[in-house]
Amino acid sequence: MGRSLLLRGRSFFGRRKRPQERPRHGGTQPMGSGCRPRWEMAATLHVGRGGGRLLRRLLREGAPSRTRLFFTSAPCCRGHPQKKRWATTAPRIPSTRMALQIFDMNYGTQFGSLWPSIRISLLSEQKYGALFNNFSEVEVVAQRLEGLNAMDFIWEAQKAVEDLDSMAEQVSGVPVSSPGTEAEPCEHQEQPIFSISPNIKCYTFPRGDISRFPPAKPDILGILGYYLLDAASILPVLALNVQPGDVVLDLCAAPGGKTLALLQTGCCRALAANDLSGSRIGRLLNVLHSYLPEQLFNTVTITRHDGRYWSKRSDIRYDRVLVDVPCTNDRHSLKEEENSIFKHGRKEERKMLPMLQLQLLVAGILAAKPGGEVVYSTCTLSQLQNEYVVERAVELLKIEHDITVQVEDLSYFRKLFQSTFSFYQDCRLGELVLPHLSANFGPIYFCKLQRLN
Ligand SMILES: C[S@@+](CC[C@H](N)C(=O)[O-])C[C@H]1O[C@@H](n2cnc3c(N)ncnc32)[C@H](O)[C@@H]1O
């Protein structure tokens, strides 16, 4: 590709000129404007192949005195269009802005008229929940949280549904099921059975209340009373419906919010917490040490493997598997430059995310025993990383492993938790919590699958 060199005056490539060398009227002064420029030479060289060599020689040996060198974007002598050249210092668009541009393009189409409201919520301050630590001084911590006017949204939701059910019973005279109970099949029974992991408590401030939780304090044993997280990220753990004696795998576990929630159930006979990242495993270990008594450590195994190849490493088949995959992490990507997947150099990695997610989900399902249950979750709104991944995994397991997977209905989550979260109504397979200014949690997508054979 040819390039052209414009030779004018002197001073090139960053060397500061002495004041007497500087043209009095500025270097861009047009010729013939009445002021006599002090440049001795002004020339444009059109150079084809070998232009780089010429430039290096000029730099080494020095250009003629009072000569300025410029690259121009003039077409080269062969008439080919000039390739645009970027200085290495050209400012790059910040990752947060890049993320917003891409979201506007994709989510504008995906969510239509809902997008402006989701967008402003994503750009506003996020709301937190306090995951209650059952292994701390429970009464003191509960009093402290209730004193702040926060409520356990899981208990509130179950109570509200129980109240509705008993009202319905009184009106119809037909018994209806309650949350968390496996009722006998019954012809009259049309209410769904709410099956959620037990013993998990998570405090939130009421809708519209944007108060913040103070940091948790250690008790006399040094154990912290609650863990702050996006309250919607508890929903995938609730959906997993861990039962007493279950052997559980958390395939992408670090930094450990959901691992901690799984342990709060008190149901895990054994829990394998795995992650690929060593530094994030360090954070997971810190979390477990800060929140659990030592005797509970016997039930937890921490490993650092590539989750995609899990079943090649372990023969254990699990009752429950959580696959909380890496994703575009939408809220974080709009706020933080650091570690952003939208950084210039991470474009390829970003494009490959759905493939990585698919591989992790397939590995998670292969690690489940027949009849076992798997929850797939992300913190993105992207259909490509959510529903498409689930669809592809179901197809792939059938074709390549002859394994049948059934997607389970989680629509009762919408009814149960409607007063705390804003749910998207048009998901086909799973559930999606949409950020909303009055309940600024999420985005969290979760979908439950059962391995049938
Ligand atoms: C969304 S985060 C998990 C958050 C965690 N479940 C929690 O609640 O704190 C996704 C995690 O997947 C891990 N990861 C990425 N690629 C992985 C792989 N191939 N195998 C296992 N873990 C992986 C990342 O290091 C990251 O910690």
Automatic annotation (TrEMBL):
Biased amino acid composition, Low complexity: 1-12
Reactions the enzyme catalyzes: a cytidine in mRNA + S-adenosyl-L-methionine = a 5-methylcytidine in mRNA + S-adenosyl-L-homocysteine + H(+); a cytidine in rRNA + S-adenosyl-L-methionine = a 5-methylcytidine in rRNA + S-adenosyl-L-homocysteine + H(+)
Pfam families: Methyltr_RsmB-F
Positions of region (Disordered): 1-36
Keywords: Methyltransferase, Mitochondrion, RNA-binding, rRNA processing, S-adenosyl-L-methionine, Transferase, Transit peptide
Localisation: Mitochondrion
Main location: mitochondrion
GO cellular component: mitochondrial large ribosomal subunit
Entries under PROSITE patterns matching the protein: PROKAR_LIPOPROTEIN, SAM_MT_RSMB_NOP
Keyword Mitochondrion: yes
Domain SAM-dependent MTase RsmB/NOP-type intervals: 147-452
Annotated catalytic residues: 379 (nucleophile)
Binding sites annotated in the UniProt record for S-adenosyl-L-methionine: 252-258, 275, 306, 324
GO function terms (MF aspect): RNA binding; RNA methyltransferase activity
Single Gene Ontology BP annotation: rRNA methylation
InterPro entries: MeTrfase_RsmB-F_NOP2_cat, MeTrfase_RsmB-F_NOP2_dom, RCMT, SAM-dependent_MTases_sf
Protein name (Swiss-Prot/TrEMBL): 5-cytosine rRNA methyltransferase NSUN4
